[in-house]
Design a protein that fits this description.
412 residues; alpha/beta; Rossmann fold; 2 domains; eight-stranded mixed sheet; six-stranded parallel sheet; 17 helices
Length: 412
């Protein structure tokens, strides 16, 4: 099987520490591990390029889309569009990307695309090549735009919705990363039940389950076996780090021996540091800053308890957080929001604790319960690890995607 993996973006950020890059690389390498030929088509350093190994990139001949005539048409249309304040259709970018994909994947069997709101180049290429297109939906982008404060005009939203309806109905299949997101897709776009499949994200479970020598890390961060909770991720408002700090302040008041380890950075990094200082718990909270993903597994070994984003938003309620599966694979006692996308994975009191979201008091209670009873924490952490190893490896994710691909290729 020859698979074209598509990411239509103005510039692909393939740094290992980004969630997108982690997910994309895991799926691509998962297919290759199964003996499939995968060609990745995206933009690298401003150039539409292809790669068969993630490392070596070759620019794709663009023919007409490199000519002065094309550039003149595009700039002219853009000028008129700007002056008249007309909605943006992403037409030229999608046509150009569709041509690049059709050129790079002309003898391939199936296209697998990481979806974005106005990207339909993959659909153009699939129809031109006569092969199936599968769209991968990683979240509710409409609500994510609202959450990030990105404003579009009424007419622009109409265009976005019209294009998305066309895209979802004309694609051969849609894969979502959670069942709640699948239900959203079915309801929002009136799609047939058998056209949308929920396939959970995964983790490199063997890496997180492996033993690591953490003596140097203990010395570096002055963590020498004290009961410790860990949070891994980007410091963003909607992730709820302020709730984590507020909860841990209350935990520290009850037991000053407990510690909090924060792995990552982001827009709220300085604000969270100030909050820690204001609460007088700076000697109990460890910031690692940005680290390579390969360093996360051994760092997590410093903690017994792990925290999933405690703040709930309409967008996060449908997501499949990678950190959850990594925590579980690392045998951490997980504290997570009691919401449908998590309930399918974590059973309260069995392989983690579920608490109502957006509640610092209940988060503090859960942290105290687990940090005060490490025997119980170890028990539910072991249950979590067993479930992760059995159900949530990237191998399992890729295998389920491949089943859909084979069916579509056979019936196309």
């Amino acid at each position: 099987m020859k698979i074209g993996y598509l990411w239509q973006t103005e510039e692909a950020n393939l740094k290992e520490t980004t969630t997108s890059a982690l997910h994309i690389s895991a799926v691509i390498f998962g297919f290759q591990k199964r003996g499939r030929e995968v060609r990745f088509v995206t933009t690298q350093e401003g150039v539409l390029s292809q790669s068969d190994n993630w490392t070596d990139w070759t620019s794709i001949p663009l023919g007409f889309f490199k000519t002065k005539f094309y550039k003149l048409i595009r700039s002219g249309v853009g000028f008129v569009q700007s002056k008249l304040k007309l909605p943006y259709f992403h037409f030229f970018e999608s046509m150009r990307y569709g041509h690049a994909v059709a050129t790079a994947c002309k003898d391939y069997d199936v296209l697998y695309e990481r979806y974005w709101l106005l990207n339909y180049g993959g659909l153009i290429a699939a129809k031109r090549l006569g092969i199936p297109l599968i769209l991968e939906i990683n979240g509710d982008l409409f609500q994510e735009y609202d959450m990030m404060g990105i404003e579009l005009s009424k007419w622009q939203w109409r265009v976005v919705r019209r294009i998305n309806r066309m895209l979802f109905h004309r694609a051969d299949h849609v894969v979502t990363v959670s069942e709640p997101l699948r239900q959203k897709m079915l309801e929002m776009w009136d799609l047939p039940e058998d056209k949308v499949t929920a396939i959970d994200n995964g983790a490199h479970v063997e890496d997180f389950a492996a033993e690591h020598d953490i003596s140097a890390l203990q010395a570096k961060y002055n963590l020498n076996g004290e009961p410790t909770a860990v949070f891994v991720g980007t410091f963003r408002l909607w992730h709820g780090l302020d709730l984590v700090i507020e909860a841990f302040r209350r935990v520290s008041q009850k037991n000053p021996n407990f510690r909090l380890l924060l792995i990552g950075d982001g827009p709220q990094y300085d604000e969270i540091q100030r909050l820690v200082n204001d609460y007088g718990i700076a000697d109990k909270v460890v910031f690692t800053g940005k680290v390579a993903h390969a360093e996360v597994a051994p760092l997590m070994k410093l903690a017994q308890v792990a925290l999933v984003n405690p703040r709930l938003s309409p967008a996060s309620a449908a997501q499949s957080p990678l950190k959850l599966f990594e925590y579980m694979a690392g045998a951490k006692a997980v504290i997570a929001p009691d919401v449908p996308n998590i309930q399918r994975i974590v059973t309260d009191g069995v392989n983690g604790l579920l608490i109502p979201p957006n509640d610092a008091d209940l988060l503090a209670d859960a942290m105290l319960r687990l940090l005060s009873d490490l025997e119980f924490s170890e028990k539910i952490g072991t249950m979590a690890q067993n479930k992760a190893l059995a159900e949530f490896s990237w191998d399992t994710t890729v295998e389920r995607i491949e089943v859909i691909m084979k069916r579509l290729i056979e019936t196309k």
